[in-house]
Amino acid sequence: MGKLVALTLLGVGLALIGERLLAFSNRQRMNVSREVEPVEPGNCHLIEGIETGSEDIDILPSGLAFISSGLKYPGMPSFAPDKPGEIFLMDLNEQNPRAQALKITDGFDKASFNPHGISTFINKDHSVYLYVVNHPHMKSTVEIFKFEEQQRSLVHLKTIKHELLRNVNDIVVLGPEQFYATRDHYFTNFFLSLLEMVLDLHWTYVLFYSPQEVKVVAQGFSSANGITVSLDNKYVYVADVFAKNIHVMKRDDNWGLTQQKVIQLNTLVDNLTVDPATGDVLAGCHPNAMKLLVYNPEDPPGSEVLRIQNVLSKKPRVSTVYANNGSVLQGSTVASMYHEKLLIGTIFHGVLYCEL
């Protein structure tokens, strides 16, 4: 009798999972049938030398742009699976900006470098530090580098590890070794992560890290992804990629986050940046997630960039800055502005440069 009950429960469980798997491929949150109408903001072209991804981009006030490239992410394509990741630099003040791979000094394991989200921090003495989410051997660490502008190099200073720093996606730094980071999936096993996505468990979170304290400050996300901060540092913006929305959260005095609102969109939101001239949020998005999960070079994933104006108002204004069906740019993740120049990055493809 006990075995019969167990088999019945197993059958019900498998049927439920099967139903969810079937529904998952057709659910609206995957935008399975969505196609985008092309939108090109101005003179745009791909940057030579970056062909294996530009997952995240951070631009200094001086116009120097850091680009993380070569991400190997479970379930995502990679055009160079055996090549270590790199950090590229572009000077957007140049008339025809070019990408240059930054040298990383000795003492750091460059062979296993797998960069994901990045964030810059400028110290009081004007020194520039680059924080990089790294996945060596599919683990998660945060690497701290000092940028040497004259030598065009990165000096590795420290590797941060912590039990809460698992499956880290993105990071935003607000002080010396003080940052928020997102966890985009709960399980480290690929099959369980896929099951987690299918069942939409909402087990991911945002954490705060400092040498004195590490804690979860916001949770209940389907897949917490990109994260950034407002120009005045009072609000934190978090993208929930599979929920297709952006969470607006107010920073508390103790580094906690209090949710203010959720901006619902019709696209899967990846990384977020803030336009330094306007305070608007720029979102790199995936119009059709199924094309990412089941990659077909004949029908590649498209790209989409949204601008959200008046983020804190009751009715933020959402407009499309860039859209392409994959014929030019595949799998956009981030868009970052400097004056009238726009860089759009991708998971595994190139980087697009536009003069608006």
UniProtKB/TrEMBL annotation:
Enzyme category, top tier: hydrolase
GO biological process: carboxylic acid catabolic process; establishment of localization in cell; lactone catabolic process; negative regulation of superoxide anion generation; regulation of cellular response to drug; renal sodium ion transport; response to toxic substance
Signal peptide: 1-23
Gene Ontology CC, one term: extracellular space
Positions with a binding annotation for Ca(2+) 1: 55-56, 118, 170, 225, 270-271
Coiled-coil segments: none
Swiss-Prot/TrEMBL cofactor(s): Ca(2+)
GO molecular function: acyl-L-homoserine-lactone lactonohydrolase activity; arylesterase activity; metal ion binding; protein homodimerization activity
PTM per Swiss-Prot/TrEMBL: Glycosylated.
InterPro entries documented for this protein: 6-blade_b-propeller_TolB-like, Arylesterase, Paraoxonase2, Serum_paraoxonase/arylesterase
Superkingdom, taxonomy of origin: Eukaryota
Co-factor remark: Binds 2 calcium ions per subunit.
Reactions it catalyzes: an N-acyl-L-homoserine lactone + H2O = an N-acyl-L-homoserine + H(+); a phenyl acetate + H2O = a phenol + acetate + H(+)
Covalent S-S links between cysteines: 44-354
Enzyme Commission (EC) number: 3.1.1.2
Binding site for Ca(2+) 2: 169
Sugar-modified residues: 271, 325
Family: Belongs to the paraoxonase family.
Annotated PANTHER family: PARAOXONASE, SERUM PARAOXONASE_LACTONASE 3
Protein name: Paraoxonase
Lineage: Eukaryota, Metazoa, Chordata, Craniata, Vertebrata
